[in-house]
Amino acid sequence: MISAPAAQARNTRSAAGLKKNCMVFLSCLLSAALLVLSFPRIEFSFLAWFALVPLLFILDGKKSWRAFRRGWFCGFLFFLALFGWIVYVTYIGAFFLAAFLALYFGLFGVLFVYFQARLSLTPRLLVLSAVWVVLEFIRAHFLSGFGWGMLAHTQYQNLWLIQISDKTGIYGISFLVMLVNLLIFEIIKARRLLAQATLIVAVILLAVLVYGYYLIHEPRTISTVRVGVVQPNISLAEDWDDAQKPAIVDKTIQLTRQLRDDNLDLIVWPETALPGVVTDSPSLLFRIREEAALLHSSLMIGSMAQDGDKYFNSGFLIGPDGQMLGHYDKMHLVPFGEYLPYRPVLGWIDKYVPIEDFTPGKDYKTFPVGPGSKKFSVLICFEDTLGDLDRHFALAGAQFFVNITNDAWFEDTRAPFMHLQGAVLSCVENHRALARAANTGVSAIIDPWGRIITTVHDGHGKKTFMQGVAWGEVPLTFQQSFYTKYGDVFTLACFLCILMAVAF
């Protein structure tokens, strides 16, 4: 029989435990919610600068395993909400993707408590920001990578800030956002300003903003090419129906004719604009080539290529005389969409969800266009968000990029706007403009400093799941950025910083 004082003590502990668990849950939920709100379509980018503070408080001083669990749970809530649109492809996949990506939040929790106990304030701020950067980098590359939803992406409209990515890649922006989160946490925890650390962070931010202001306003002479983008808004049901091929091509041609009087050097159609294998529809390809000749413009179209038993997701360039000038085969394929990674191990998945493997391309190709044969490269699907891939095209001589994509898979959600975020930052990393034609949007022209010059939109400003065209003067740049030349040196420096903190 339990005595009354013992029962009361047990009830008190139980109530305290429940209150503690509720506080942990609400803190995780608050950090996840603030982060999600900083992404499209809300895009309150300022929230990202303190969104992680609630999470940091419930990590502080905890054992490693407990910190991992709390970090993982916050990450799971965040990724499940942010990437919820994946349910339109697979419900189970959306759940497991969120669970997997949340591991990186969990690892950050472990390293947070480790360095909290080991380092003094200023080194701790810098090292923990470096930890976040390295984890983001690994997430973007491990198992083919998933580089969406980075802290840097929340800032894509803050032009002065994002210019630093031409030196550091997008990870320099993530570093700054995490640095401010950590500083705010330390100030609230200490209940005082922490003058030295605040001054250091303020100087870093001011230097970044001054650099960005200078870069945007620097006088420069720029040549341009005139590029139009076509957004036909073809549904997946139409795209999969062979009988609809003529209607799809006809619809896209009719839209393209709206650009007839604009004297364009290049017109861009989206990915799979000619459904199926390009050689399987010779009459439709002939119509497209004929249209290019009538418009006196080069035309880039998306379709599939076949070489024996190999299939490629490709972009084909048709010259202003209607002749086929060449094609590019997509190099970075979508795992579990365009190929099954580690097929010897994961081949059992094919029994439940058949996945045919495309073959990746091998060449960083450039194509000539316009007077003086300006050079551009084609990026297919989410390749326009992969700065490290895109830099190789710039090194190969591309003076601007073209992206052809089809985001219809994810319905009218935040997905196409998140795709646009990554594209903007990749432009800044490599100082290359981008003309992107997206089947259902967002189709746009972006300059080398991340400014969105124009978009396809209707009279109400809607940019997705509507049809239309747009064109603009695409600025050309010839110099290569530091990031283009040397890649992710900043991330390597962050990794070395962490090793030094562990060793010493």
Compact overview of the structure:
The chain has 504 residues and is an alpha/beta fold.
Q: What would you say this structure looks like, in words?
A:
The protein has 17 helices and 12 strands. The protein is of the alpha/beta class and about 500 residues long. Strands 5-4-3-2-1-12 form a 6-stranded mixed sheet, covered by helices on one side.
Largest sheet: 6 strands, mixed
Q: Please tell me what the overall shape is.
A: globular
Give the number of DSSP strands. Answer: 12
- Low-pLDDT segments: none
DSSP helix fraction? 40-55%
Strand order of the largest sheet: 5-4-3-2-1-12
Number of helices: 17
Round the mean pLDDT to the nearest integer and report it.
93
Q: Which class of secondary structure composition applies to the elements?
A: alpha/beta
**N-C termini distance:** 56 Å
Share of β-strand residues: 5-15%
Round the Cα radius of gyration to an integer and report it: 25 Å
